[in-house]
Amino acid sequence: MRILSIETSCDDTGITIMEVKGGIKKPSFKILANVSNSQIKIHAPYGGVYPMLAKREHIKNLPILLEEVFKISQGRPLRIQKGPTLRNLGINLIAVTYGPGLEPALWSGIIFAKELAKKWKISLIPVNHMEGHILSVFGKPKGKFTIPKINFPVLSLLVSGGHTELILFKNWMQYKIIGETLDDAAGEAFDKVARMMNLPYPGGPQISKLAEKERNCGEGRPLGIQKGPTFSSFVLPRPILHSKNFDFSFSGLKTAVLYLIKKIGTLDEKTKAKIALEFENAVVDVLIHKTIKAKEKYKVKTIIVGGGVACNKHLQREMKKAMGKNIALLFPENKLTGDNSIMIGMAGYLNYIKNNKKTRKTFNIKAKGNLRLK
Ligand code: KG4
Ligand code: ZN
Predict the structure, then answer these.
(1) DSSP code of residue 310
(2) Which among 97, 45, 94, 48 is positioned nearest to 69, based on CA atoms?
(3) What is the pTM of this model?
(4) Total structural domains in the chain?
(5) Are residues 128 and 13 part of one domain?
(6) What integer pLDDT is reported at residue 126 of this predicted model?
(7) Which residues of the chain fall below pLDDT 50?
(8) Same domain, 132 and 261
């Protein structure tokens, strides 16, 4: 069967057409076309995603992207038709993200998907964006791929701009959140700290670039052992590292950076790089420490890391070192760490099969900004 999937939970608009088969036991996918539009440039002046602006951009871009995926998947130009009046060219099911995310942004994808489903008289399946991030480790930006057999229990660390969660599962689609952030998400902390240092949005890649350079220049030692002219010594905190649960907290770390910056006064490039390095080290230390603790307690066999922050090189390296050889450690391909509609199509297919191909009444689907995995 052929699935058209739509992602609009934040600042990326994505539409994919994929051919799927094999059911739950041997799901396999072939990407026929995948297109996306990033709104980073539009939100950058605000230092973060502005929900109503995101909605407006999604509404503008969805019909354009739809024409584009059809054009690519058919291998020939379409007669220009306007928006959702497009003829259905062999799509059997539509999958759309319905949460978590920014509700105005989610609604734009949902309304578009509903119109298409009604027009084409096909089913619509709502997808949890976080389940998409979990499955993204098996995805490819193009071509064919499958979801191989993996060893359960699985622990998934999801780290994005909106979420930091540890999820445990003994089977697909039976998730339990065992730890989450009490305040800021890891990606959000990266973005906020970058903003404090006047680095452009999104801050994660910027901080990471500075930190990598500083780490590799031979002076990559913690700031705590350094004696500078403007500050004598500091080490940023690793919040709730030793708490008994698997929760995270990053807002104290962010505040510590703020105080430090105030104390230093004017930041030169070198100081920015040192702060970036120590901040990245602190976030990664906490993420890894909690993941190891959960892995040991639940005798986990496979670890899946997903979400925008999963492309952080330091996190990838340190995870590999910490988990050793007896555990399968899976990261998405770089192109699929961020938000994309390929992972939504994959999750849509598995859920469609799990629900015995029954789908909810299309008009019942609503955006759920705070949707949780269960
Ligand atoms: O999953 P995602 O694309 O969107 C959400 O669902 O939130 O994640 C975006 C987040 C942003 O906060 C961004 O700064 C962060 O992922 N990010 C990174 C890196 N690349 C993106 N954080 C740390 N290091 C990176 N290399
Ligand atoms: Zn995401």
Answers:
(1) G
(2) 94
(3) 0.93
(4) 2
(5) yes
(6) 96
(7) 80, 83-85, 220, 222-233
(8) no
